[in-house]
Amino acid sequence: MTWLFDNIDYVRELFVRHAWISVVSTLIGFAVSLPIGWYAHRHARLRGVTVALVGVLYTIPSLAVFVILPGILGTKILSVVNVIVALSTYAAAVMVRTTTDAFGSVSPQVVDAATASGFSSGQRVFRVELPLAGPVLLAGLRVVSVSTVSMLSVASLIGVSNLGSLFTDGFRRDFLTEIVIGIAGIVLLAILLDLLLVLAGRALMPWTRSLAGAR
Amino acid sequence: MDPISGGGALMSVVNDTVEWLTDSVHWSGDDGIPHRLLEHVGYTAETIVIAAVIAIPLGFWIGHTGRFRSVAVGLTGAMRALPTLGLLTLIALYLGIGLTPPLIALVVLAIPPLLAGAYAGVESVDPQTVDAARAMGFTEWQILTRVEIPLGLAIIIGGVRSAVLQVVATATVAAYVGLGGLGRYLIDGQAVSDYPQMAGGSVLVVALALVLDGFFAALQGLASGRRPSLRSRARSSP
Fold first, then answer.
1. Which domain holds residue A104?
2. Is residue A214 part of a domain?
3. The pTM is what?
4. Which helix (H) or strand (E) holds A103?
5. Minimal CA separation from A126 to chain B, in Å
6. Which end of chain A has fewer CB atoms within 10 angstroms, the N or the C?
7. Does the complex come out with an ipTM higher than 0.90?
């Protein structure tokens, strides 16, 4: 405990860094997956191919990606850009599946009704399909956010600092406390982001709350 | 120039990596590719067998009886938040040097996907089918072994597939706490700023993961061939 108090600034700095890298990667992955998932949902023949392709992406071990990406991107291995690209790709790989399912969960009658009421196709996507796909999208985002927070810690092995640096540092110095604090920090961050997502979901989709209450 | 000293052109990085991979020096001895690959596969097999002996019967029991289901779901969910590197370093420091501590960590991480696959597979069987078997005089054991396991096999194998990929990836990371295998190239290369070695090792790890994934995908396909209604769900294993 004294170690934590003595190094509180360092731990806080790592926590904030871990938080922003995870949030940015999750959001980029989500943004990329939306159009792909929507397109795959509309074109049944592409769906199988897309889902298989992103499935393969997800089988690739993260440490290998953290090492290979700088070679492909031409960036320095210590650059945070590699890590963000890698984590966003993983996030997108998981989310494409979910976004495809999410758009599939919107009742076709509702979409037809929107068309009949004179919605243009753009309006229909943004004002009918997207909000109604929201609950499934949120469920997917919660899974991705947790695994992104956890996966980022591996990047400390190639020298990109985050809360995982407490693991490598603690291991090198034979200091268990530091590792435990690292694990606690990561679990805390995962819970915090999950809570934020749930709150954001309630604010953006008030109807899901009244539905849950009515049940 | 390579990514360690400051980012380089793609072609030269690829050339260096290919050169490292094809250099005959790297294909023999204890630090050679065949030996490291065998080690990696060996750790994976060992871990999966131990974890399966623990998790699969437990998963069958949870799936068949429905007991402790919410505990199992919560546990597998919570494990996702647990950072693998944190668990590895913690167990390695706590239990000391040697191969056993990292292998224990790998077993711990392989249990949740195996457990989830086993109970989800058993649960996926239509309750009416189970009732029909019961009405025909099947004992509970016969229902499990002759109805639920054969019908849920594709999903059960899906759990094994996730666990294998998880272990291949984590065994790579475990080189940091002293495990052998392909991860050695990444960690040792990093220590001496040898990027081609790191990239070469990474390519091998990716190849191994893809081959194993393909193998288990094929097994899943065989298993779900006997149950067409499941075929579309085979890839969505937990």
1. 2-209
2. no
3. 0.88
4. helix A80-104
5. 28
6. C
7. no
